Fold this protein.
Amino acid sequence: MELYAEQGFEQTTVAEIAERAGLTERTFFRHFTDKREVLFYGTEMMQHLLVEAVASAPASATAMDVVGTAFEAAGAMLQENPERVRVRDAIVSANPELRERELIKLAALGAAVAGALRERGIPEPAASLAAETGVAVFKVAFARWISEPGQPDLPAILRESMGKLKDVVTDRLVAAPQR
Amino acid sequence: MELYAEQGFEQTTVAEIAERAGLTERTFFRHFTDKREVLFYGTEMMQHLLVEAVASAPASATAMDVVGTAFEAAGAMLQENPERVRVRDAIVSANPELRERELIKLAALGAAVAGALRERGIPEPAASLAAETGVAVFKVAFARWISEPGQPDLPAILRESMGKLKDVVTDRLVAAPQR
């Protein structure tokens, strides 16, 4: 990923990445299907973490609490290395092909969380609605976090955004505040 | 689109599409940047319709009501020609490249709705949360509608899904119904 940041994603070859990582090209391709996948390794990890968090939440938790807690755990993972996340986000944002793959990974992540909720006995469409809403809140919170370099804590922003979502959905927030 | 359904998306050339539509290739490219765009013309129309509906909603409407009404209007548009929507969905679903573009268009649509909400004076992050949640509900409702051929009414499924979302978000639905 350093190489992508230094010389651009398009200009970086798999041979260069493998060399920097001390791997042969063959070993590289055993781990990643192509050079784009390097950037989405974290997204896969995030998906595993989300599914795990949903499965291990207390039995008494509501669907939305389960989803909220799971995404906060994912946020905490990203928070561990904010600089890395920011560099990666800049690389992905600058390349339409990578932005596309990012959207695909996010969609897959929503489907995985919905599946984990169904495993807990949450019926459809509630499982998909809760999961997709979780992804929606994550997108908004992540965009806020990444655009404000001083923002300290992604899990806190996620929690706040989830609370805000409840206000928005329950209409405690009217449309035109100027009235 | 008939051609895509008949002979597959990959096998269809712009020349064939233009001929079927009674256009020259040059005219085709004045309207669409490439052959994929033909399939996303409806998505662009849907985006215009959503932005229009958000802008023209009554001043007293809450953010979530505005979003709900706008997506119901979009659902009504799709409902006008369900067979066309189903054929298009089958073509897009069968092709990874088209699925990617679909996700990009949906993301753009969420951003456009958020922008229209801000125009109404809804502050961030409420505007983005309401818009992204609207897209999430639309995705779930659309998937239900498309997977059940007997489903009569997309706007009704959208309304029902929006109601269900409120239940999910406000925790009226607990996680494990077996208890």
Summary: Chain A has nine helices and no strands. The radius of gyration of chain A is 18 Å.
